[in-house]
Specification:
single chain; globular; alpha/beta; five-stranded parallel sheet
C-alpha cells in the first residue's frame, strides 16, 4: 500500500490508556527522533503498521512518502520487481521501465510488513540494499542509483528461531534490528478492549450511516473476556459486523460471533460435523492453540474454509505460510487425500476444483504423496518430509 494523497501521511491514532500502550508511545517517540532502522514485532493484527506510520509521521521525514509493502502478499517472482523496479524486456510482460517502490519512497520511509515470510534469495537482495542504498532493477547490469529511505520492518514470526532453522539470514537480522519495538497483544492491554470496542462501534456506524448499537451487559462481558487472537484487527471486524447486521438493540450475548460465544460456553455439538480424534482437533479456545491449529479447530466446529482461511488471507490477516501449514495439517489427517480434505474444511464436493485452484494460485498446493507415505510407514508427516 502506498500513500497517494500527496507526500504527507495523515496521522493515525494509537488508542488506549493501558501501561503497555503508554510505554509503546514512549518507544515510538524515541524512535521517531532518529533515522535508524526499526524492527517491529508482535502478533498479527496487533497494530504493527499503525506503529510504523506513527514513527514516520512524528519523524523528520513526515513530509515525504510513506510506502508500505506486504511481503507475504506478493509472490517472490514479483517482489523484487515491485521493490526495485525492472527494465524493459527483462521478463515477459516487462513492456516498459518501472522505477519500483524503493525509488518512490526516496527521502521517506519504506515499511516492509511480514518480513519473516521473505525468501532467502530476496533476503540477500534486501541486505545488499540495506548496506549500500544502491537500487538495481531486475534485468539491469548494475545499480541505477541510490535511494535514501528509512527502513522499518515488521514480523509476527520469531526471527531468531527462523535463523536457527536456516530460514532467515542472521546478517540481515542484525542489519535491520537497530531499534526493536514490540507491539503488545490486545489481551495484554486490560481495559483498552472496552475503549476500543466503543470507538470502533461509533466509527463503523458513521461509515455505514447506521445508528450505534447498544451492547448488553452480558454481551460486553463476553467481549471483554474473549482473548482476541486476531487482536485489534479482529475486534474492529467484529464491531463492524455488529453494526452492518442492524436490528440488534441491544446486542445480546447470543448475537455475538460464534467464536466469541464459544470462548465462554464451550464448543457446541454440531449435527453432522465430522468426528475427529482429540489429538487431531485442538480446541480453538485453548490458550496454546495458535495459527494453523486454531484455523483447523474452527473448521472442525463447522466453519467453512472460505470464511476461516480465504477471506483472512485476502485481507492479509494470515500469511501464505499459515495456509501451507494448515493444508499440511489437513493432509496428515486425511492421509494425503485432497478430496477428503474438502470435506474436513467444511466445503461441498462441488467446491473441489475451486479449492485446488485457490491453493495453486497462491503456491499452497502441497505434495500429497509424502502424507500417504507417512500413513503407510507409521511415521509423522514431518519425518516423511525429511525422507522425501
Amino acid at each position: 500500500m502506498v500513500e497517494r494523497d500527496g507526500t504527507h501521511v495523515s496521522p493515525v491514532a494509537l488508542l488506549g490508556r493501558s501501561p503497555a500502550i503508554v510505554a509503546l508511545r514512549a518507544e515510538i517517540a524515541s524512535a521517531a527522533r532518529t533515522h535508524a532502522k526499526v524492527l517491529i514485532t508482535g502478533e498479527t493484527g496487533a497494530g504493527k503498521e499503525v506503529v510504523s506510520r506513527l514513527i514516520h509521521h512524528d519523524g523528520a521525514r513526515r513530509t515525504r512518502r510513506f510506502v508500505a509493502v506486504n511481503c507475504s502478499g506478493i509472490p517472490e517472482t514479483l517482489l523484487e520487481s515491485e521493490l526495485f523496479g525492472h527494465i524493459k524486456g527483462s521478463f515477459t510482460g516487462a513492456y516498459r521501465d518501472k522505477p519500483g517502490l524503493v525509488k518512490m519512497a526516496d527521502g521517506g520511509t519504506l515499511f516492509l510488513d511480514e518480513l519473516g515470510e521473505m525468501s532467502l534469495r530476496m533476503q540477500a537482495v534486501l541486505l545488499r540494499f540495506a548496506e549500500t542504498g544502491e537500487v538495481q532493477p531486475v534485468g539491469a547490469d548494475g545499480a541505477s542509483g541510490r535511494a535514501n529511505v528509512r527502513l522499518i520492518t515488521a514480523t509476527h514470526r520469531d526471527l531468531r528461531a527462523r535463523i536457527t532453522a536456516g530460514d532467515f539470514r542472521e546478517d540481515l537480522y542484525y542489519r535491520l534490528n537497530v531499534i526493536q519495538i514490540h507491539v503488545p497483544a490486545l489481551r495484554e492491554r486490560g481495559d483498552d478492549v472496552r475503549l476500543l470496542l466503543h470507538h470502533f462501534l461509533a466509527a463503523a456506524a458513521e461509515a455505514h450511516a447506521r445508528p450505534v448499537p447498544r451492547i448488553s451487559p452480558a454481551a460486553e462481558d463476553r467481549l471483554l473476556a474473549y482473548d482476541w487472537p486476531g487482536n485489534v484487527r479482529e475486534l474492529k471486524n467484529v464491531t463492524e459486523r455488529l453494526v452492518v447486521r442492524g436490528g440488534l438493540d441491544p446486542v445480546a450475548a447470543e448475537d455475538l460471533p460464534v467464536e466469541v460465544r464459544r470462548a465462554h460456553s464451550g464448543p457446541p455439538v454440531l449435527v453432522g460435523a465430522p468426528i475427529v480424534a482429540a489429538s487431531s482437533a485442538p480446541s480453538p479456545d485453548h490458550p496454546a492453540t495458535t495459527g494453523p491449529e486454531r484455523l483447523w479447530a474452527r473448521m472442525q466446529m463447522g466453519e467453512s474454509f472460505w470464511t476461516v482461511v480465504q477471506q483472512p488471507f485476502k485481507a492479509h490477516d494470515i500469511t501464505r505460510a499459515d495456509v501451507r501449514a494448515l493444508v499440511a495439517l489437513g493432509l496428515e489427517h486425511t492421509q494425503g487425500s485432497y478430496r477428503q480434505l474438502v470435506a474436513e474444511f467444511q466445503l461441498p464436493p462441488g467446491d473441489y476444483k475451486r479449492f485446488l485452484a485457490f491453493l495453486s494460485q497462491h503456491d499452497c498446493h502441497l505434495r500429497f504423496q509424502r502424507h500417504r507415505f507417512a500413513a503407510r510407514s507409521g511415521v509423522s508427516a514431518t519425518r516423511a518430509t525429511d525422507a522425501a
